[in-house]
Amino acid sequence: MKMSLAVEGLLADVMALGQLGDERVSEVADRIVAVLERSVPSRILDLLSEVVAELSSELPDGRVEIRLAGDDVEFAYADEGLAAPETDAELSARITLRLSDQLKARVEESASRAGISVNSWVLRTLERGTSTSNPRNGRAGSRLRGYGTT
Question: What pTM value is reported for the model?
Answer without folding.
Answer: 0.49
